[in-house]
User: Fold this.
Amino acid sequence: MKPYQKEQRLLTYFFLASGLCFALGVILGVLREGTPAAAPSTLWSCFLERGKWIASAFFLGFFPFGLFFVLPLLVCCGFGFGTAAAACFPVPTAYVLLFIQYLPYLAALLLLGSAASLLSFLRYLRPENKKAALPREQRRRYLEYTIFFVCALALTFVSALFWFIFPS
Assistant:
């Protein structure tokens, strides 16, 4: 089996596990039926509120134990989404707006979460190809990971923009 096929299979398993963890967080948030956290008052505060989760997922990718903390991070983010969804029960059209507001943020979490998990998991694997252990290949891997982080931050900013363009 080729190495990229193993990575693709791991990525598929991670997407399934992260979807289940996020769904678990949403269910717990909806069942809580509490009031969601206060809505951020500025675009910058909304970006920082969501960006802290993106940054924590980014930093978890550099540690071997980060693999075990990315999925609970998605449960926490799903819990925040679930509490916001529970507040939308009286107004059905608010669900559509909430989905539009959170979609780029969820894409950013899944993108960076999968990259962080893969980077953490690769520390446990021995490379089958000796070239993969070279320092320049590791620098390339870190550069790709940083590009994922920048893309995730851009998606988070778009999500924060949607929060203010489409108020619920």
Summary: Residues 5 and 11 are 10 Å apart (CA to CA).
